[in-house]
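Most newcomers find our protein records easier to grasp once they have seen one. There is nothing in a record beyond a sequence line and a structure line. Getting from the letters to the tokens is the skill we practise here. An example says more than a description, so a record of this kind follows:
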Amino acid sequence: MGIAQTRVQDYKAAVTSLTKAFELDSSRWEIIRERGIAQVGLGKRDEALKDYNKALDINFDDAESFYQRGLIFESENKMDEAMSDYTRIIELKPKYEDAYMRRGLIYYNVKRDYVLALNDFNKVLELNPDNTEAYLWRGKTKFKGEDFKGADKDLSRYIDFEPQHTEALITRGASRININNNSGAVEDFDEVIKMDPKNFIAYMNRGTAKGGMKKYKDALIDLDMAIKLKFDYSPAYINRAAIKFASGDKKGACKDLAKADGLNNEKAFHLIKQYCQEMK
């Protein structure tokens, strides 16, 4: 009864039913675990955590209780505890796809450990080659690791399913710049700008891609727009400086680097020392 009530989101009734069932047989960890799920549905995360802990006191090998507790820990920003639970699940059930996915996301977003994140996303896709979300995250992880061809391939797979996903298009476009597929990159940024005409990152990157195609006039138009939309974003000045250098406008390039330096961009400081000293 209680489990069925949880499934139809009658959480209050589920808690009552499951409490009675557990009073009749306190050895059944799955009942108290299910009550924890109902408690989450009621917004009572502290009570849910108590239930998951109790379920694990009874059966320390219950992977589902670890998973539900891991989600609670994540919601409370206790990422080390969440990772510990997901790792325990993987020890218990090496084919538990969602545990690899959750742990991989923590490696990527919190720990910034892209090698371990990639390992987990690889495992997800080994277990389930149709997990489209894993292609997105593996593509982003490969981009961070400078595997730009791999990133392009994974993000293309994801975009086949989600063709209007702005972040995927931007990351694929940036990957394509790095593998010298500038025309493909421009197409990605065109799509982003159609959906979001004020996306300064898309303008900046499209300008960079056009610069790679030696379309310097068009590149500068895009970079001007990026700076108009986000005047304090120093990478846009550095990218515009690169286009100006390439088109022979050294004075304008050094002026842009000075602006980026004024925004505390360390790269700009070194570029000024390398290319603009004689202009001071």
